[in-house]
């Protein structure tokens, strides 16, 4: 699709373009958008922009770029038809995005082995943008960071590398990503987009650019720090709430009470928050709170609630493994001779993403208890699992198992019943169903949930 289609903006000669704002320049096709980082966040927004704007999609991984040129999403989130009729050029050549004037940085912001922010991808991407940044350009960051990071870390890089000055020569903004992997309902355009800018002009122009593609509209934050904070507390809030439910599940299991029945009963009140227990991993909920913890400590605040919530959620894998081993022993079985099948290793249901999956922690804890563990997953890539975690993914169950852990709520598992488990289980098995995926269909077995 040509970027000049579907617009009433009149094309102007180059010398008159300066009279326009950035939005009008982009919509007319006189300027281009470059999206830096084409993962599960960057690729969808690049393709959405490419419906009406001219876009350069940049990623340092040339193999991923080659896949996208063929209409393949390396993250397995988008279908081939979503690449069709889009005005986009994929590249791993930095100079090919030098023609852009509006840069969107959407790279991961992970944590290191000490649970501290790892800003290397963000610093690397910012440095790359600085090499092609020109007077009059915009840079908008989407990566999740702590409040102040964009202005304290990214802006100095841009100014030092270019000799340009913020707001005098170039503008910046922050618009946190809100992509929910695997969600086919709350998609990119249907979620309100928070936007912010380094001054009033940049805020207005950034709001117009995003507002052009976001059906749900945009919310204008008064500052970049406010926008950064709004993002990092989204997942921190979920983490704290899930930690509470996880703690309750530990208590209720000791009392012999079904946690899910308790939640169902409590949920009949209109203002009860319906969170569920679970393993909290992935690259958002299990990571973002550490960014806020880092900043809080930097300014002399002890984030006790956030820190204890992280600790509670991190210890759930060990609690589950110990409980399962204990129950197998209670059945008179020798734990070291017991085989366990773990169904699912991705960080959430119906996605292929294994990053920071807490199922991996559960597998290691089960092995620490002396159990022999096999793992299957219909979505995860076998080679990726081996390279990332050293775990051999089985294509199908290979033994008779003393216990089966339904670890991820994949839709394929929701159809399994007692007859299926009868074919893969040894005598008197335990079904540990973390999300009640097969609840009601394995009656007669020793069935457990969180």
Characterization of this structure:
The structure is a single chain. The protein is 36% helix and 14% strand. It has helices at residues 22-28, 42-49, 62-69, 120-130, 149-162, 200-211, 224-255, 259-266, 288-298, 304-314, 316-330, 358-368, 382-389, 418-424; strands at 33-36, 55-58, 88-91, 102-105, 138-141, 171-174, 193-195, 218-220, 339-343, 372-376, 393-394, 401-406, 425-433, 446-449. The strands form 3 sheets. The protein has a 6-stranded parallel sheet, sandwiched between helices. The protein has a 6-stranded parallel sheet with strand order 11-10-9-12-13-14. Strand 9, helix 12 and strand 10 (372-376) form a beta-alpha-beta unit. Helix 4 packs parallel to helix 5. The termini are far apart. Mean pLDDT is 93; it is low at 1-18.
Task: Summarize the biggest pleated sheet.
Answer: 6 strands, parallel
Report the principal-axis shape. elongated
Give the DSSP E fraction (strand runs of 2 or more residues): 5-15%
Strand line-up in the sheet with most strands:
3-2-1-4-5-6
Spell out the helices and strands N to C. HEHEHEEHEHEEHEHHHHHEHEHEEHEE
Poorly predicted runs are 1-18
Distance, first to last CA: 50 Å
Count of helical regions: 14
């Amino acid at each position: 699709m040509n970027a000049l289609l579907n617009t009433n903006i009149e094309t102007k000669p180059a010398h008159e373009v300066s009279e326009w704002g950035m939005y009008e320049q982009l919509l007319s096709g006189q300027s281009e958008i470059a999206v830096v980082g084409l993962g599960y966040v960057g690729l969808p927004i690049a393709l959405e922009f490419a419906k009406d704007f001219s876009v350069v999609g940049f990623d340092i991984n040339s193999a991923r770029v080659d896949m996208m040129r063929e209409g393949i999403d390396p993250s397995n989130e988008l279908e081939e038809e979503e690449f069709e009729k889009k005005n986009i050029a994929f590249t791993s050549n930095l100079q090919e995005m030098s023609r852009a004037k509006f840069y969107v940085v959407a790279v991961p912001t992970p944590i290191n082995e000490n649970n501290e922010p790892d800003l290397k991808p963000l610093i690397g991407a910012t440095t790359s943008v600085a090499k092609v940044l020109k007077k009059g350009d915009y840079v908008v960051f989407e990566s999740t960071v702590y409040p102040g990071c964009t202005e304290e870390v990214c802006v100095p890089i841009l100014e030092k590398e270019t000799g340009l000055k913020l707001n005098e020569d170039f503008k910046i903004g922050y618009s946190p990503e809100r992509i929910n992997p695997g969600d086919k309902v709350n998609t990119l355009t249907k979620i309100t987009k928070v936007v912010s800018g380094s001054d009033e002009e940049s805020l207005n122009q950034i709001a117009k650019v995003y507002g052009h593609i976001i059906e749900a509209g945009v919310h204008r934050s008064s500052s970049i720090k406010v926008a950064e904070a709004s993002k990092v507390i989204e997942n921190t809030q979920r983490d704290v709430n899930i930690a509470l439910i996880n703690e309750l599940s530990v208590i209720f299991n000791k009392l012999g009470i079904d946690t899910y029945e308790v939640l169902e009963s409590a949920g009949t009140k209109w203002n009860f928050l319906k969170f569920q227990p679970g393993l909290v991993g992935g690259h958002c909920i299990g990571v973002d709170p550490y960014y806020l913890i880092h900043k809080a400590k930097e300014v002399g605040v002890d984030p006790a609630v956030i820190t204890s919530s992280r600790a509670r959620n991190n210890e759930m894998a060990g609690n589950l493994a110990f409980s399962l081993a204990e129950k197998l022993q209670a059945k008179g079985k020798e734990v070291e001779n017991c085989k366990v099948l773990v169904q699912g290793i991705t960080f959430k249901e119906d996605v292929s993403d294994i990053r920071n999956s807490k199922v991996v922690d559960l597998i290691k804890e089960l092995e620490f208890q002396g159990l022999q563990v096999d793992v299957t997953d219909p979505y995860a890539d076998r080679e990726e699992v081996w390279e990332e975690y050293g775990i051999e993914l089985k294509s199908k169950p290979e033994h008779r198992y003393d216990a089966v852990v339904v670890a991820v709520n994949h839709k394929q598992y929701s159809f399994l019943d007692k007859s299926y488990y009868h074919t893969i289980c040894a005598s008197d098995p335990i079904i540990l169903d973390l999300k009640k995926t097969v609840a009601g269909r394995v009656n007669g077995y020793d069935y457990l949930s969180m």
